[in-house]
TrEMBL record:
SMART domains referenced in this protein's UniProt entry, alphabetically: SPRY (SM00449)
B30.2/SPRY domain segment(s): 89-269
Gene Ontology MF, one: zinc ion binding
Keywords annotated in UniProt: Metal-binding, Transferase, Ubl conjugation pathway, Zinc, Zinc-finger
Residue ranges constituting the RING-type domain according to the UniProt record: 1227-1261
Protein name: RING-type E3 ubiquitin transferase
Organism: Nelumbo nucifera (Sacred lotus)
One GO cellular component, as annotated: ubiquitin ligase complex
Length: 1281
């Protein structure tokens, strides 16, 4: 303001420059400075007062006495009222509204509690309502029958709410509410529909923080709705007119947990609509209060202008006898304030209304909505107001208003970076630096509610994103080339706005942490913030449930407080004073490195896990529920201990990377990734990132760089092709060096808020608030890549010669893809701006390092490990994968695990089958992580270099192949063994591992029981999947006229699983053929039966339609992705593997492969199936040309099989005469072998092969269902004799 102030003749004009001259009407350009030279006299005071009070020229006569407070008040009461009575007082026509007294005061509109159906909680002075029942409805105590009226609803949640108008006769039930009857009208932005008995599409989707204006125009019989002041159009025409007292009531219906803030006019509207009146009239004193604040604002402006260039003003004073402003300021300001407080105290409800409206606007104008702010003027106003007793209540209302404004303030592109809630947060932070105002806020009953409001951010819907990001570009886009640079500029501006808001959040939380409440006994800094955190987590602990309970905070609150804590722990505190006492005695002098980056000696208080705190007791633990663990594994004195370890002690020495080693972790090293190249050539980075724009990447903080300056990440990104039986002792680690459990201090300073407590809270906040956001971001980024591929494929097809009808359909499809891609690109851009800031990714990486080492250390202590909350593990895994998929990539994938997170590999391979983890879902989560990582070569290398993975993963995978985990285990085994089967491409199989193939072979050979159990489950599972596939195909045929996408997807998924299982079985026959060729032929017979079973289903006419019908192919997948060859190829490989092993085996006693196939009951089916394999178009199906030698080998096998089958048929004809005599000796299960074994104790008999096969899955007799204790071999010849 100082630089831009008006200057005349090189001198600042001071007080006189903005005063109007006596002849301003005749010559508006003539300033009072010029007229003052004409009018020699002491008139500057009178003219100044006229300007301040906005009075006509010379309406104040020459002063005959001093200018004191009494004179100012007298002037205000006489002259202002006389000159403003016809200009500021607007007489409103209130005819047409009736307000019933519901106990809230006369003429006060509120929710009529007698009208509530369901269960609605009303708090915050009858403004905030929340539904506790599945569906609740209520009306207000005011009705309208003519005129134009409105009320506003601020959405605290964005679920199912029906907002509108209803008559007194509209029935409310547990299932029906506003809009479900003919005499009620509602809008629901969750379902984007309007409701008047029947729903119809209307409006836009709403989000948390939206302000919905509900307007009824009974002059034109219309009802309309507004979203943030923007009309959604007329929703209902022809609304029935009603008589006096029988009009329309404001009414709402809320589903369970939905919350909204109702404003019927008791407070100023956020977005008043021209022509519509509030149901509750505003206080009559509001115009006067507004004018008085404007007078004070003009006084402050004069004072500021005078202070900008005091030298020139003093010269002017000496020449023209100016009265110094400092002599006038205090009596004028005090007089205005006295009149202001006197006016607002005269009317009930006016203090709150004026504080929320005119006063907040005045303070914002004084302070400035953008930097640089006018701290001097604001401090002067606050000092002045605090001299009056009524100001405390006003300031409390101001804090309420600022908090509410943070919830509803939208981001505006043209206002960046000082947009959104920034101005309200900046004003609040500066005011709350005063201990008196901070204490006032803390003493209020709504302290935590208001703090949540300050930490809120308004959500964005599709239309909001269109306004914020009007230009969209993506790699390969055919849009205007200027869109790329425009979008980059926009994302940069929005990133700046988000950074400013997050900076204010940190400053506010910093103030709360530093605040020492005036209580007895004395409390240390941080106690208030700790209480807030505990209560926040307590009420949001169920925020990850599908059906949210009442009272859950907005997701933006959880995200904001998480972001604040992450910055504190990663980047350090802005002021050294706060970090000293938080670090405790371990802190070094001058050590301002963030907690997560310190390295060296680490510690963690075990009491955080074993302490029976109310806000933690019902949180699930790795070993089960907390109460169950207290009974089954009680903790003695361990809550008074803390565990200490040296960073990196759980890693292998040869691969250890810590903050103390020469090579630094990724979070504390500079990375030479060329992100411009990522944007220009996105295909190279598809495996780890998605295509699109990124926000600018700020440098890491100076103190982190100073601490970890050594080492750099110079590896280049390379092309990446895409693609519980163990004993507890096995889960122990090698001795962990530098691990200690030490007692705490005798008098622990439990009141101190420690950094480990913030870390604990941050992990839960991540689990509750960030996990769903990162999942959404991952979905949109993946979907964007798919849409880009679809768009490119459509463009390619359009360039080919197609008929006009096909071209028309392709153009329609392209428009759909393009519109969806534009929306998706905006979503991706927003998530990159809000989630993937460089400093956030750095903090997340350091968090993963810290947490995984903590879990590995605690896993050595069984009694503590089972008490670890589940969210520690869930947050760790999700945070790891969010970093891995970050866009742009945080670091090159080749070093992502290598330089800091090798311990993550150690943890997941060691604990995915850990019986101490009671939740199968958590074990599956770890198993899924392995499944995802091993498909990329750069990550598979980390497994091959990890001792724990080498020693434990092969056996653990075979053991985990069970009812629940067979799908991820199958995927892992398949990826480790890629490229080794028949028909597999030898190129591009980047995730195959010769090391783990050998380890798996050794595990199977050296542990016969383990392999036998695995093979049995593999047989059963493959048989089940093929049966399910056949059943699903037939179900789909029954619904052929309605090709259900879900059923198609089910068939495709089951078919894929069958193919994967067959490939695993092929690997077993190649690496462990002796399991089928040596000893009992049971495995070989089961394998043979399975091959014939699959051949029969795949080649049958019934199932063939799945492969032949073009419409059943999955979206965006080509024909070669779904064909018979996918499952037929491993069958050929199995047969050839066994034939090769039979030829090269040195065992003299081995099972006859051809003989077993020839012994099957359906020789014609077997022959047809193998003939189909020989004639199959392998090149066209798998795009792989199998060698002629291999197919020739299969042909020879078929020829030999035919000869053997014919020979068996001849033998069967020759021995048919004796068959009847031997029927009683045959096994009644298979009718192929002699019944040479019996169950004990029931003595039922069958062949030994059938009994052995049955006992693999069931320990009961298949005749009487009795428990089998023993199986005895029976010599039938001896019995006959």
């Amino acid at each position: 303001m100082a630089e831009g102030s008006l200057k005349i003749g090189g001198l600042s004009s001071g007080l006189a420059v903005i005063l109007a001259s006596g002849d301003r009407k005749d010559n508006p350009q003539k300033s009072h400075l010029i007229s003052y030279y004409d009018d020699i006299g002491h008139q500057s005071v009178e003219r100044a007062l006229e300007h301040i009070f906005d009075l006509p020229y010379k309406s104040i006569s020459s002063l005959s006495g001093p200018v004191d407070t009494d004179f100012i008040r007298c002037t205000l009461k006489s002259d202002i009222f006389k000159h403003r009575v016809n200009r500021d007082v607007i007489l409103s026509n209130r005819d047409g509204v009736s307000i019933a007294d519901s106990g809230c005061g006369p003429n006060t509109v509120a929710v009529d509690e007698t009208s509530i159906c369901g269960d609605i909680r009303i708090f915050k002075q009858h403004f905030l309502v929340e539904s506790l029942a599945m569906f609740s409805s209520a009306r207000a105590n005011a009705c309208v029958w003519k005129g134009k009226w409105m009320y506003e609803v601020i959405l605290e949640t964005s679920g199912i709410q029906q907002l509108g108008w209803a008559t007194i006769s509209c029935p409310f039930t547990e299932n029906k509410g506003v809009g479900d009857a003919e005499d009620s009208y509602a809008f629901d932005g969750h379902r984007v529909k309007k409701w008047n008995k029947d729903p119809e599409p209307y409006g836009q989707s709403w989000v948390v923080g939206d302000v919905i204006g509900c307007c009824i125009d009974l002059d034109h019989n219309q009802i309309s709705f507004y979203r943030n002041g923007v009309s959604l159009g007329v929703a209902f025409y022809g609304v029935s007119k009603m008589g006096p007292g029988l009009g329309y009531y404001p009414a709402i219906s809320l589903s369970r947990g939905e919350r909204c803030n109702l404003n019927f006019g008791a407070l100023p509207f956020r977005y008043p609509i021209k022509g519509f009146q509030p149901l509750q009239n505003s206080p009559s004193v509001n115009p006067l209060a507004t004018h008085l604040l404007r007078c004070l604002s003009r006084l402050l402006e004069l004072k500021f202008m005078e202070n900008t260039d005091s030298t020139s003003v003093e010269k002017l004073r000496r020449l023209k006898r100016f009265v110094p402003l400092e002599e006038l300021y205090h009596p004028i300001a005090r007089g205005i304030c006295e009149e202001f407080f006197s006016a607002v105290d005269q009317e009930l409800g006016s203090v709150e209304y004026v504080s929320w409206g005119p006063l907040v606007s005045f303070l914002l104008e004084t302070f400035g909505k953008q930097a640089p702010h006018n701290y001097t003027n604001l401090d002067g106003v606050v000092d002045l107001f605090l001299e009056f007793g009524g100001s405390r209540l006003m300031f409390l209302y101001v804090i309420n208003s600022l908090s509410c404004s943070c919830k509803t303030a939208p981001l505006v592109l043209m206002e960046c970076p000082y947009s959104g809630s920034y101005s309200y947060l900046a004003l609040a932070c500066h005011m709350l630096r005063r201990e008196e105002l901070m204490t006032l806020w803390w003493n209020s009953s709504d302290f935590e509610f208001l703090l949540e409001g300050f930490l809120s951010r308004k959500g964005l819907n599709k239309q909001d994103l269109q306004c914020l990001i009007p230009y969209v570009w993506w790699p390969g886009s055919c849009e205007d080339v200027s869109y790329e640079s425009s979008m980059m500029l926009i994302t940069t501006a929005l990133s700046g706005a988000i950074n400013k808001i997050e900076e204010m959040h940190r400053e506010l939380c910093h103030l709360v942490i530093q605040f020492i409440p005036p209580t007895t006994p004395f409390q240390l800094p941080g106690s208030v913030f700790r209480t807030f955190l505990q209560n926040l987590l307590l009420k949001n602990r169920a925020a990850d449930h599908n059906l949210l309970p009442p009272g859950v905070s907005s997701n933006s609150v959880l995200v904001s407080i998480y972001t604040v804590i992450l910055h504190f722990l990663s980047e350090g505190f802005a002021e050294g004073g706060i970090s000293g006492w938080m670090k405790g005695s371990e802190a070094k002098v001058g050590d301002d490195v963030g907690f997560l980056h310190r390295g060296g000696q680490q510690f963690f208080p075990v009491g955080l896990f074993v302490k029976n705190d109310p806000h933690r007791a019902d949180i699930s633990r790795l070993g089960g529920s907390f109460n169950h663990l207290l009974r089954s594994h009680p903790v003695n004195d361990e809550e008074a201990e803390e565990i200490q370890w040296e960073e990196g002690c759980v890693d292998d020495e040869e691969t250890r990377v810590t903050h103390s080693t020469t090579q630094k972790p990724c979070c504390c090293s500079s990375c030479d990734v060329d992100f411009t190249r990522v944007m220009k050539d996105p295909i190279r980075y598809t495996a780890k990132c998605f295509r699109g724009h990124c926000s600018p990447i700020p440098e890491r903080s100076a103190h982190v760089a100073a601490e970890c300056s050594a080492g750099s990440l110079t590896d280049e990104i390379v092309d990446k092709p895409s693609s519980s039986d163990q004993p507890e002792s096995e889960f122990g680690y090698q001795t962990v060096q530098h691990l200690r459990i030490v007692p705490r201090m005798s008098n622990p300073p439990s009141a101190i808020l420690r950094e480990v407590e913030l870390l604990d809270a941050m992990l839960l906040l991540y689990h509750l608030g960030l996990t769903p956001n990162f999942k959404q971001a991952s979905y949109f980024m993946s979907h964007q890549s798919q849409l880009i591929s679809l768009l490119e494929e459509t463009d390619k097809q359009m360039k080919e010669r197609v008929c006009s009808e096909q071209l028309k359909r392709l153009k329609e499809a392209r428009n759909i893809y393009r519109e969806e891609l534009i929306d998706c690109a905006r979503q991706c851009a927003w998530y990159r701006i809000s989630l993937f800031s460089r400093w956030k990714l750095r903090g997340m990486y350091a968090t993963c390092m810290w947490v995984v080492q903590l879990l590995l250390v605690l896993s050595k202590v069984d009694s503590i490990f089972i008490y670890v909350p589940e969210f520690y593990l869930e947050a760790l895994v999700d945070c790891f994968h969010a970093l891995r998929r970050s866009d742009p990539p945080f670091v090159p994938s080749s070093i992502f695990i290598k330089q800091g997170l090798s311990s993550f590999v150690t943890f997941i391979v060691t604990h995915f089958n850990d019986p101490r983890i009671s939740s199968a879902d958590l074990r599956d989560l770890l198993l899924q992580s392995i499944s995802v990582l091993v498909q990329y070569r750069e990550y598979l290398v980390a497994f091959e270099n990890n001792n724990a993975a080498i020693q434990k993963m092969p056996r653990a995978l075979l053991s985990a192949f069970g009812n629940r985990s067979w799908i991820p285990v199958t995927n892992i085994l398949l990826r480790l063994c890629k490229g080794s089967g028949f028909g597999s491409s030898k190129h591009g199989e980047s995730s195959s591992s010769m090391l783990f193939q050998g380890l798996l072979r050794e595990a199977c050979i050296h542990d016969d029981a383990l392999f036998s159990a695995f093979l049995n489950r593999l047989f059963n599972t493959l048989s089940w999947t093929m049966t399910e596939f056949s059943v699903s195909v037939r179900e789909m045929q029954e619904k052929y006229q309605v090709l259900e996408l879900q059923q198609q997807r089910k068939c495709s998924v089951i078919f894929d699983l069958s193919c994967n299982l067959a490939r695993v079985l092929e690997f077993c026959t190649r690496e462990i053929p002796q399991a089928f060729l040596s000893g009992s032929d049971m495995n070989l017979r089961r394998l043979t039966e399975l091959i014939i079973f699959i051949l029969n289903h795949v080649t049958s006419a019934a199932d063939a339609e799945f492969f032949d019908h073009r419409s059943l192919r999955r979206q965006s997948q080509s024909q070669e992705k779904i064909n018979r060859g996918m499952v037929l190829a491993p069958l050929v490989g199995i047969i050839l593997n066994l034939l090769d092993a039979s030829i090269h085996s040195e065992d003299r006693v081995k099972n006859d492969v051809v003989g077993v196939f020839a012994s099957m009951d359906c020789p014609a089916t077997v022959h047809c199936g193998f003939q189909y394999l020989l004639e199959y178009n392998w090149v066209g199906s798998l795009r792989v040309d199998p060698s002629f030698t291999r197919l020739r080998q299969l042909e020879e096998f078929l020829s030999l099989l035919g000869s053997r089958t014919k020979s068996r048929e001849e033998q069967s004809l020759g021995s048919s005469a004796d068959a009847e005599e031997d029927d009683d000796r045959l096994c009644c299960i298979c009718y192929a072998s002699e019944a040479d074994a019996q169950f004990e104790p029931c003595s039922h008999r069958s062949c030994f092969g059938c009994i052995t096969r049955h006992l693999l899955n069931c320990q009961r007799c298949f005749f009487c269902n009795g428990t089998v204790l023993e199986v005895l071999r029976v010599d039938r010849k001896r019995e006959t004799v």
